[in-house]
Request: fold
Amino acid sequence: MAQGETIVIPILAEKDDSWALRKMVFFLALPAVGEQVLNTLVGLTDQFLVGHLDPAVAAQLGYDRSMALASVGLANLIAWITMTLFMAVAAGATAIVARRIGEGETEQANMALRQALLIALVVGAIGSAFGMLLSEPILLALGAEAQVAAIGASYLRILSLSFIPTALTFAGTAALRGAGDTRSPLYLMVVVNGINVLLAWLLVNGNLGLPGLGVDGSAIGATVARTVAAILLVGLLLAKRMRLKVSWDLRPDGETIRKILKIGAPAAGEQFIFQGAIIIMTAFITGLGTAAMAAHTVTLSIESLSFLPGFGFAIAATTIVGQALGAKDPKLAERASWEALRQGGLMMTLLGLLMAAWPATVIAWFAPDPAVIAHAVGPLRLAGLGQPLLAMAFVLTGSLRGAGDTTWPLLMRVVSTWFVRVPILFALMWWSNWGLMGIWAAMVADFAVQGFLSLWRFQMGAWKQIKL
Reply:
């Protein structure tokens, strides 16, 4: 093995004990959790600053805090749907790189990295064109008020300029995680957050004599920050400063691209199915008014912090499962998955209890508006109670993806979204008039079904036989 430092699983080669496994999972997941926290903080920083928009700046721009929050929430929904394409490339890159590393094929892992970056370049360009040309019509189609749609479209057009660098960053960091390097993506997100916080603070409310740009200022901060991160990542990969290496050889390799897309396409389909239901849900929310939309945005942002441990431990599970199967050790893959679930599930449960016990206090940190707090208290309690089930879905689905089983998560998403979430949503909103509580009750039911279906699939064990 030419580059043994990229391997994770040999940590257990000579001491097959639970403590060694526990440490391996924890120290692989911890930087991934940190990265996800920082990645989420980019959006949360923007929402915090927008939610605390200076009254003088708001008067000058012609919109208030609730309208600003609602527009950013809707715009980020569209951005998230677009980034589904980037996540598909990332899923394929992680699984292929992890399997090649486990097999000891470092050069083939580097080939997968190069091809993932090429795919990312294409899908990033598609996403950028989509955001630039169709922002306002889509927001209007979702039922946004004309002014909210105009504000959100301005935000999204600026953010769309970052989609190519964001796609490259998604693909590059996903490949690094597959090689067992979860620290480098963390360091990149430190840079992203530093730049974003500084620029957003300067531009949203016009500090230090700069003009107050409101939501556009937050979009500029995020765009510049993500672009710098992509430049740094690609530069370091070319300079061979990372665990994986990339060269200027930009020739496409059909077989590698096919394998990445074969794994990534179901992951993309899973997200598109989910986001389709989100669009339906958003249409209901916009009908509840601007304050309810702002409350939903804040609740979703807080919940996104609570499930970050799930993301981090899912990444650890994906990496170890992929490498362990490449090394022909399915027993290690299974043990590591259960350990990741124990650790990630405990963290998410504790955060969920905090959300359920003190919802008003937590909400006030992000949006001090009394109307927003009143709308968000009940939904945040429900979200907190659903965290243990969501942890099970996240971590075990991460294990399945590491094995290359991305078709099952797609089928699971179809069932939980369209046969559970959407019917409950219509029942509670149309016939029972639950308002925002109905939205979140449907979401928590979806989480429960995802959790139990992922557990069933994992215990069946078919994922251990998948060849990549």
Residues 1-7, 11-15 have pLDDT under 50 and may be disordered.
